[in-house]
Amino acid sequence: MSRQAKPGSKPYRAQLRERLTALGFPEEAIPAQVAKNLVVECGIPPRTAWRLASELSLDVAAHQYNAVTGDPRAGMRGTRIWEYEQWPERGVRPTVAALRVLARVYGTSWKCLLGLRDLEQLPAKDLAEYHAEPDTPVAVAAPEPEAAPSARTPVRAEGRAEEEIGAGALDDAILLTKTNVDDVQLDDLWADLDFLGGAYTRTAPDSILGQLAVIADRTAALLKGRQRPKQTQDLLLVGAKSSAMMAWIAGDLGRYRRSRELNSAAWLYTQYADDRLARRWVRTSQARVAFWAGNGIESAKLAADGLSYHVGGRLTDAPLILAEARGWSSVRAEGQVLDAIARWTAIEDPGLGAGGEDSFFNITKDRRHYMAGNSLLSVGQASAALREFTTAREAFEQLSLENRWEAMDPMIRIDTGRAHLRLDDLEGAAAQVGPLLDAGVGKQPDMVRAMLKLMATELSGPRWRSVRTARNLSEALLDAHASARP
């Protein structure tokens, strides 16, 4: 051909028609030759090839289909014809009756609309009908409706350059309708994420991490294919949430380098998805991981940035405000901590649970009050902290067993004990952690081990080092720290 054109595109077909005309093919024979070339040379399936050879858009083909049936309201749509064209890989299998009508629209026989892969998937009855019918093509021109939308006119040789401007745009746009994912797959991915988010509180973190990795791998594999734009965004959101959840749990296991990598991946997903709620998910996870990795100021700044993405009531501000307070508490920035606690107190809803699709990030009441108490304790507000820990304990005990995060029991006990130490109440401190030590700590997330070591260090300080009870308690806490590795 004189000019390079995308195989199968409108310019390609126009040039093909010119060549066929120059070779002496009559006008009525050209569509069949174009269709044959599209199938053989371009690898286009027969039903699509014949529609393109007839220079019909999906909607115009549907309009003419309805006209052939004699009922313009018959209900054929361009989307259904597209589904017919996607079969047998996906889409919908066309009936023989539908193929017969399409054949009349395209001016061919219905058998010409089936390829080898189609025949291999046909029901036995349809295949028998296929073999029973003569092979002679029936060139029946479809009646041209008087007001067919976007009706095509014969392509003229003159003015070709003007016609090629924008030619093939519709065919390229139709590529956007091709997809390797459907709503069922997306629903399954979201359902799995919601289930694992709920199971996190009562299931070994390694197990949850492994299952989330399967979702992340499956999502990444799907994204390598083609989807409709909205489906691509949904997959990006699944990728963002699964990666953020994995980062959170990897932090529980003390794998902070891996947590940062996963959060970086999650943030990249959110940037492409361009979704405010997803940015909140990731900032919540990043702030948590940064704090427990020892980067308090970074944690506070990440939490503050997360609050800038307003999402209405879908994800409460409480976890991020409390993360901001906790971050500042690591450097004893009392003013910033008290400001954040005041903002949280103003919005705290005692009846707010952690249900719904964002239960993983919408932390429960016991964890909210624990975070507030931990921040207050770090800036010397021991009495206020003790009140928050008491509320956290009450809220924890009111939760059903399946909704409790088991790490909260030791964390509340340890920090309540630390608050008693700040109030010079060694006996009260021992009463809090004694039952925990007697029962055995068992495997715990990394932050529980960190709190055990912190309390042991405080008991070894100048205020308590000369007290035998304090020394014994410190040694017991260090033993528990060693045995609590997840």
Structure, described:
The protein is mainly α. Helix 4 packs across helix 6, helix 15 packs parallel to helix 17 and helix 17 packs parallel to helix 19. It starts with 9 loop residues before the first helix and ends with a helix. The protein contains 24 helices and no strands. The radius of gyration is 34 Å and the shape is elongated. About 5% of the residues have low confidence.
Map the helices and strands.
Blueprint: H1 10-22, H2 30-40, H3 46-53, H4 58-68, H5 78-86, H6 96-106, H7 116-121, H8 124-132, H9 160-164, H10 169-174, H11 183-199, H12 205-223, H13 229-252, H14 256-273, H15 276-292, H16 296-307, H17 318-329, H18 334-347, H19 365-378, H20 382-398, H21 408-422, H22 426-439, H23 446-459, H24 468-483
Brief overview, please?
This protein has 486 residues and is mostly helical. It is 64% helix and 0% strand.
User: Which structural class should the secondary elements be placed in?
Assistant: mainly alpha
Assembly type: single chain
How far is the N terminus from the C terminus? 68 Å
Return residue spans where pLDDT drops below 50 for at least 5 consecutive residues: 137-161
Strand content range: under 5%
**Helix percentage range:** 55-70%
Q: Nearest-angstrom radius of gyration?
A: 34 Å
Number of β-strand runs: 0
Largest sheet: none
